[in-house]
């Protein structure tokens, strides 16, 4: 079922591309066709990770299901996002209806699109901090109904997120999404290179560069912000060092739940953009180019606010597992055993790959020494 669901986005992109070619929108058709090809290649490169990813997402949904109050917070933030989109739409409509030249108009639309994404990211990450704080408290205290669970914990998390931590949230929202997406693509491509040493060297350079950025800009920082009140860079560095010191980074790298949730957000945006584009085409065909992409961006951001609740639970589970695995064992012993088994497998896999590279380097050095003699 999971394999079918992640291919829905590929199919949708391909169908829209064909329809664009049929309607003589060749640029849009090429863009959608390239997107479908890249999406297909990425899914194929991570197809073996999907069973574990599905398991983690199921447990995250199980956790969120026991916290209905965090869903109410997410709905409230979606309402705030809708109000912002209404104001934003008036600005876009004013730019489109203005008499300025096309170049200035497109630049203004780019600026407005960036503002929409940043605002959406800020709202998503604010929800991220609130949900992470709640999930962490539930795991620490052994359940929602525990007698040691603090009173008004949700309101405290909400107040903390929109006051003390808001600066860190805004700062981190500028970078985390772009760096995560780049990291996913490089990881998927890197796993399928094979023995092409030149290409592997270039990809490893990019991978190490992105890994350095991830050390200072990652989504796990928001859990540290929610729980310990640190600054964003400090939180991101501490979270990544925690993962590397405990070996959980191998498990985090193997999991692609964030990518699957992103696919859901993109699919939601595409559906809303398609519906709005069809409506615009029936009213005035020349407005499709403006209405379709704008509606797609708005749909992506709105669905992303809903998806972040599950992603927050995933990140909190990994942080808790790295800090104290017994917290996960107390919450769900079967899930703890499954995570531990997968972590053991991933560490063994990394160890075998490192030994293979070391032996290959020794063989190359021996061959060079033999040829020199």
UniProtKB/TrEMBL annotation:
Topological relation to the membrane, as annotated: Multi-pass membrane protein
Compartments reported by the entry: Cell membrane; Membrane
The keyword Nucleotide-binding is annotated on this UniProt entry: no
Molecular function per GO: transmembrane transporter activity
Main subcellular location of this protein, as a coarse class: membrane
Transmembrane parts of this sequence: 6-23, 30-47, 73-95, 107-140, 160-182, 259-281, 301-321
UniProt superkingdom: Eukaryota
Keyword vocabulary terms for this entry: Membrane, Transmembrane, Transmembrane helix
GO cellular component: plasma membrane
Record family assignment: Belongs to the CTL (choline transporter-like) family.
Function: Choline transporter.
Alphabetical list of PANTHER family matching this protein: CHOLINE TRANSPORTER-LIKE (SLC FAMILY 44), PROTEIN PNS1
Protein name: Choline transporter-like protein
């Amino acid at each position: 079922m999971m394999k079918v669901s992640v291919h829905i986005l590929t199919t949708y992109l391909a169908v829209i591309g064909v329809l664009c070619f049929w309607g003589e929108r060749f640029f849009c058709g090429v863009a959608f066709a390239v997107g479908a090809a890249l999406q297909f290649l990425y899914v194929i490169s991570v197809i073996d990770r999907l069973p574990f990813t599905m398991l983690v997402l199921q447990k995250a949904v199980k956790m969120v299901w026991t916290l209905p109050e965090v869903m109410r917070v997410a709905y409230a933030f979606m309402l705030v996002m809708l109000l912002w989109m209404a104001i934003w739409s008036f600005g876009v409509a004013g730019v489109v209806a203005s008499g300025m030249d096309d170049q200035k108009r497109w630049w203004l639309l780019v600026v407005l699109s960036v503002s929409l994404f940043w605002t959406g990211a800020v709202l998503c990450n604010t929800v991220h901090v609130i949900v992470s704080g709640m999930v962490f408290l539930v795991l620490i205290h052994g359940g929602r109904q525990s007698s040691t669970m603090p009173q008004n914990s949700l309101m405290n998390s909400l107040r903390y997120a929109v006051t003390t931590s808001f600066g860190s949230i805004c700062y981190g929202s500028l970078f985390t999404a772009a760096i995560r997406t780049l990291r996913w693509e490089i990881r998927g491509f890197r796993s399928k290179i094979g023995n092409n040493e030149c290409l592997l060297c270039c990809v490893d350079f990019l991978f190490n560069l992105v890994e350095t950025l991830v050390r200072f800009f990652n989504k796990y920082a928001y859990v540290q912000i929610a729980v310990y009140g640190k600054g964003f860079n400090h939180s991101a560095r501490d979270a990544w060092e925690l993962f590397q010191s405990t070996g959980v980074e191998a498990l985090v790298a193997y999991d692609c739940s964030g990518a699957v949730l992103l696919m859901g957000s993109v699919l939601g945006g595409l559906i809303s953009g398609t519906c709005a584009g069809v409506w615009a085409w029936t009213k005035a065909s020349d407005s499709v180019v403006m209405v379709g992409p704008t509606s797609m961006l708005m749909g992506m951001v709105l669905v992303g606010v809903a998806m972040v609740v599950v992603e927050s639970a995933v990140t909190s589970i990994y942080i808790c597992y790295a800090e104290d695995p017994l917290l996960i064992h107390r919450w769900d012993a079967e899930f703890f055993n499954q995570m531990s088994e997968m972590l053991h497998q991933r560490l063994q896999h990394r160890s075998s790959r490192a030994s293979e590279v070391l032996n290959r380097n020794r063989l190359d050095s021996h061959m060079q020494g033999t040829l020199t003699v």
